[in-house]
Amino acid sequence: MSGKIVLIDGHSILNRAFYGLPDLTASGGRHTGAVYGFLNILFKILEEEQPDYLTVAFDTHAPTFRHKMYEAYKGTRHPMPEELREQVPLTQEVLKAMGVPIVMKEGFEADDILGTLSVKAEREGLDVSVVSGDRDLLQLATEKVLIRIPRTKAGKTEITDYHAGDVEEAYGLTPPQIVELKALMGDTADNIPGVPGIGIKTATKILKEYGTVENAYAHVENIRPQKAMTALRDHYDSALLSEKLAKINTDSPVELDLEKARLENLFTPEAYEMFRDLGFKKLLTRFEADPAAEKRVVEVRTVTGLQEADALLKKAAGTDRAGLYLLQQTDRKSGKCRVYGLGLSLPDQKGGVGGTYYIPAGGFVTENLLLDAVRRIAGECPLLCTFGFKEMVRAAELPESAEGSVFDIKIAAYLLDPLTSDYSFDTIAKDCGTERVLSAEEIFQSKKIPLPEQMEEDKAAVYAGETAFTALAAQPLLERKLEENGMLALFRGMEMPLVYVLADMERAGIRVLPEELEQYGNRLTEGIRQVEASVYEQAGETFNINSPKQLGEILFEKMKLPGGKKTKTGYSTAADVLEKLAPEAPIVRDILEYRQLTKLKSTYADGLASFIADDGRIHSVFHQTITATGRISSTDPNLQNIPVRMELGRQIRKVFLPAEGFVFLDADYSQIELRVLAHLSGDRKLIDAYKMEKDIHAITASQVFHVPFDQVTPLQRRNAKAVNFGIVYGISSFGLAEDLGISRKEAAEYIEQYYQTYPGIRSFLEGLVTSAREKGYSETMYGRRRPMPELKSSNFMQRQFGERVAKNAPIQGTAADIIKIAMIRVNRRLKQEKLRSRLILQVHDELLLETAKDELETVSRILEEEMTGAAKLAVRLEIDMHTGNSWYEAK
DNA sequence: TCGCTGAGA
DNA sequence: GCTTGTCTCAGCGAT
């Protein structure tokens, strides 16, 4: 018999993969990095070797004979981290799905199994490759048995191969002598004692001369270095024990089943499903080459004729479900929207997908015709399935339709797993196990998706068509999952209605005066010039102050300021560090001022100017699928971090103005997160504190520091305020100390006193951690989830992080939910009452409205009612409202 | 592309 | 002994 078999040391390779690769987590927080690495090594070896047979050996969980022996001798092995442990059964499942036999035997280690199988295979006349990270296995090498040891080097796996001859070359010893070597030198990693005082050099020398330990002992008197002689003489027992420990059993009761081991198709449908669930996207591509597992790629038919297009669009409006994707592009400057085509997917009778089409705009099929069709379908079709609905709302100016009649798969995917950043249609398709679609990368043969105007029409057709297909095909599963997770109400009643509000805000934009913005920038430039000159003078040279590297060298090396390295790459020059090091040093003051000025200039003055559109307004983009906690985010530009704390920065708000005839009305929630905490925790004392309707931080100070309310000092209030904020973030004594400039001990006392004062808070926060640990996620009042894979980490720091996040996410998230509700309700009221006033911005706990002067009173009332009434909490929700002729005045 | 820095809640 | 308060986005320099 001839042929080749590959034998794999499962645990050992898994171990290599675990430590050699960054930790990956699939959705749901399962760790998968080691499995992924294992498979990569496996595939690499199979490609190289093209073997006929494959078998993987694993240790059993029960302690084996050899374990017991050395554990009895000395301690235990270091325990396997939990992240790795949970991947062992997972790997076995994957192998099973691929039809690869796994051999395990109670009481025997993988080593022994590999040894036995390799001997048996060799006897059968096979070439054998044993793959393991463990050099102990070198003792198995022969002319026909190859030992292969992979190493991960800079992310790449390199494999070193040993036949018997290679072992001799590398160690100067025959493979069987490797056992003797271990017997003498020992192996701390494996708890093999060896002979104390004999290391690899002496051991090799002795074995070269005497061949075996036994023979060496017989001639012990002749052994050269005196020390080695006495060591061997005195510890011969230990050497014999070590030999037993190191010797791999090649006669274990396991069978070599070549029928099962025969390599056939690894890429089975079962394996495909597992890879997909585990998020091994790269590995999925291996299935393409295999016709059996190949899934048909969705076909998109391009429809150009007016009549045919018209018929199709009518049909879409008439069906009970339709998948729709509008390929359009909005010009940033003009705000004009161009429509390039419409992807459309229709169901079949059985609830599957019937056909997928692309209707390009052109000829008789005008852009307006397509937009009208979208409006009609949105209005008539009972379930419109989309991907990125906000863009469609903006392009077609869709009015809000009945709850439950639109389903955005992107938003659904976000709610189900808000931690990823990839909500591309092809990823959603894979996650939902629909028919195969091409990814954007495959369609355009580039990482970047081109703008619609640059797309070739045939590619645009596939892109838009498959997106529409995915929307339709993935919707049922996504809806079921939302239902299962109790998030359907959140999705239908909050996230989908919010889409219209965000679309309105984006369309509205905010007015900015370009001339004044430029003047502001010029003032900054002047200031920058002066401070810059001062810095260079004090440094004695010119350099780039914006370069932390150069700055660090100047400050800490040339000028010899106290304080050393803080970051991986060099000196930290962050403001708080500099502040602490040399608060008095004039150059530090100047640098901090320089930083402030250049930040304002580049990010705000110049940055904002580049976004002013032809209508004199900035139309920022609001994202609904970014944050882990449910907040919305803003980009291009980010209008949620416009300066306010420092006066100079705050000035920039003077260039944000309401339209002619309007004023700004700004309303922000008063300590919404703390109120949410009071509500969720149910802490009587904190709730009562809010019922007193006085300054909450002062009340806290009074209660925590045991002083009468009217004798609370400003410092006490400030400290109490910092604790109040910190609690919400899962504070540590270190963090609070840092914040307040007090000692850790004092900070710890503050926190303890706080918990004493509000006992419900501590138990509530601890309960959040426990519950998150059990369930694997945290939850807001409205059922929004945030997965918490970190809580299961074996890494202390990661786990600590997980605990803080578990405390913060439900609070921050609930506050985010509440303001989303408020936004929806405010927007609806404005429309219902046919007001000209409109929502312009949301800044997490604040809403900015452009209000018609004659509507000021009405709108104030609406805000008051809808914002405070957005949630019914155990404490009142309160808002502060201001009007003004600029954002500066209104805040 | 990554890390640092700093703006906001 | 080690770490050290949440969530973001943008600009810059170094790689």
UniProtKB/TrEMBL annotation:
Occurrences of domain 5'-3' exonuclease (ranges): 3-264
Entry keyword Methyltransferase: no
Annotated Gene3D superfamilies: 3.30.70.370, 5' to 3' exonuclease, C-terminal subdomain, 5'-nuclease, Ribonuclease H-like superfamily/Ribonuclease H, Taq DNA Polymerase, Chain T, domain 4
PROSITE patterns noted in UniProt: DNA_POLYMERASE_A
SMART domains per record: 53EXOc (SM00475), HhH2 (SM00279), POLAc (SM00482)
EC number, as in UniProt: 2.7.7.7
One example of a Gene Ontology biological process annotation: double-strand break repair
Domain DNA-directed DNA polymerase family A palm residue range list: 649-855
Gene Ontology MF terms: 5'-3' exonuclease activity; DNA binding; DNA-directed DNA polymerase activity
Alphabetized UniProt keyword annotations: DNA damage, DNA repair, DNA replication, DNA-binding, DNA-directed DNA polymerase, Exonuclease, Hydrolase, Nuclease, Nucleotidyltransferase, Transferase
Enzymatic reactions: DNA(n) + a 2'-deoxyribonucleoside 5'-triphosphate = DNA(n+1) + diphosphate
Similarity section: Belongs to the DNA polymerase type-A family.
UniProt subunit comment: Single-chain monomer with multiple functions.
Function: In addition to polymerase activity, this DNA polymerase exhibits 5'-3' exonuclease activity.
Protein name: DNA polymerase I
High-level lineage: Bacteria, Bacillati, Bacillota, Clostridia, Lachnospirales
